């Protein structure tokens, strides 16, 4: 009769056998490839395609080429950037590809532009400043020190103050819904140095990834960075570098086109400062209820910012059908730039992804870390979006009465920081 022998192993022996069996499967020359190559190497580059809300939030606050370049390096939200530039500037045939053929210009403005208009406005909900579609009732008042007289006492509406404010681009006047969010954050003068330093830092990080890829591809220690047990092909890095450069350029072009569909103006009283207050009337806009509020920036301003959607984006071409003449969709002067930006971005991503797949897994991790760092930088630069204004709930239909009464009683203390 056969007997079955049972072997008993101690816990330490079992652990040793488990580790020995696992290490026999993993090849020594590809440390990290089994887990990292199959997971992070495939997944990390694809992460750059996502990030819709972060991308649209950045694009809607773009205010110059510095913002465009910061958006382009170590990019996140590649698909969103391509779809966004098509929504804003591409012809309807391209909009149909992304499912936006029947989208109104106001909806694209709401999501992607920094402007306000007769169709898009900014209102205080009691918790946050929100952008909604509709025509609001918001009364904007400016106090300009040392320009007060017996008639105005230094108080002006923006329309009245246009003769006093100096515009850097003459010929335009601030109209439509007020740009509350632009005037809550730091002025362009305050942001210029921070944006420049951030732009340089982002470029250094992206170039650093390319330098690292070149070192592990061509330098003497390249034998330590193998792919599937062999040296990566020599054409792997050129594909990666070309794809990265094209991707950055395409993303910059997308942001540039979107930014140039608004006209941003700076209205300046030099060397004086402006104290602003917005009187929001209780109203229902786009099926959303908003109460009456008096809204003030947390600090006085040295410049008033306005951003307006450019209405005339191109010529309207007539199309003759039988005996009738109709007008085709307006041709954007940035149509070619928009299509080029979208195509270059997609081609750049495909080349970059191919290059990463041909190289050692550490190159992918380097780009992933760089994207995380620059994304954190972009979030930090937009931290003022979370800044709450000084908002006070007031009686509905008595907004101007509240303002006149409190101005008479409190005077300069009506504004949070006071008027010296």
Automatic annotation (TrEMBL):
Keyword Ribonucleoprotein: no
Superkingdom as given in the UniProt entry: Eukaryota
Alphabetized UniProt keyword annotations: Membrane, Signal, Transmembrane, Transmembrane helix
Signal sequence interval, chain numbering: 1-28
Residue intervals passing through the bilayer: 69-90, 194-215, 235-258, 334-353, 359-381
Name of the protein described by the UniProt record: Uncharacterized protein
């Amino acid at each position: 009769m056969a007997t079955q022998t049972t072997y008993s192993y101690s816990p330490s022996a079992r652990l040793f056998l488990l580790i020995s069996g696992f290490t026999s499967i993993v090849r020594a020359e590809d440390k990290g490839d089994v887990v990292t190559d199959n997971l992070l190497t495939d997944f990390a580059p694809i992460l750059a395609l996502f990030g819709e809300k972060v991308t649209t939030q950045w694009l809607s606050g773009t205010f110059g080429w510095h913002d465009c370049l910061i958006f382009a390096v170590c990019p996140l939200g590649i698909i969103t950037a391509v779809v966004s530039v098509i929504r804003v500037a591409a012809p309807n045939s391209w909009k149909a590809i992304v499912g936006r053929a029947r989208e109104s210009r106001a909806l694209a403005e709401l999501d992607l532009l920094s402007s306000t208009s007769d169709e898009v406005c900014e209102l205080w909900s009691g918790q946050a400043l929100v952008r909604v579609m509709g025509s609001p009732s918001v009364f904007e008042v400016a106090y300009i020190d040392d320009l007060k007289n017996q008639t105005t006492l230094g108080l002006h509406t923006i329309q009245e103050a246009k003769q006093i404010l100096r515009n850097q681009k003459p010929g335009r006047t601030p109209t439509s819904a007020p740009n509350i969010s632009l005037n809550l954050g730091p002025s362009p003068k305050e942001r210029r140095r921070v944006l420049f330093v951030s732009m340089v830092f982002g470029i250094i990080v992206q170039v650093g990834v390319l330098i690292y890829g070149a070192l592990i591809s061509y330098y003497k220690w390249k034998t330590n960075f193998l792919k599937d047990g062999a040296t990566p092909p020599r054409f792997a890095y050129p594909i990666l570098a070309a794809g990265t450069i094209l991707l950055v350029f395409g993303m910059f072009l997308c942001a540039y086109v979107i930014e140039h569909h608004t006209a941003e103006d700076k209205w300046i009283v030099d060397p004086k400062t402006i104290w602003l207050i917005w009187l929001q009337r209780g109203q229902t806009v786009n099926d959303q209820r908003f109460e009456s509020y008096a809204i003030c920036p947390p600090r006085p301003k040295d410049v008033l910012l306005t951003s307006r959607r450019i209405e005339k984006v191109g010529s309207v071409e007539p199309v003759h059908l039988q005996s009738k003449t109709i007008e085709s969709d307006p041709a954007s002067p940035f149509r070619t730039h928009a299509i080029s930006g979208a195509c270059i971005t997609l081609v750049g991503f495909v080349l970059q992804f191919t290059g990463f797949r041909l190289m050692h897994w550490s190159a992918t991790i380097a780009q992933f870390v760089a994207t995380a760092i620059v994304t954190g930088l972009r979030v930090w630069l937009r931290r003022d979006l979370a800044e709450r204004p000084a908002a006070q709930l007031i009686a509905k239909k008595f907004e101007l009465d509240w303002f006149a009464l409190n101005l008479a009683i409190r005077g300069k203390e009506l504004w949070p920081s006071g008027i010296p």
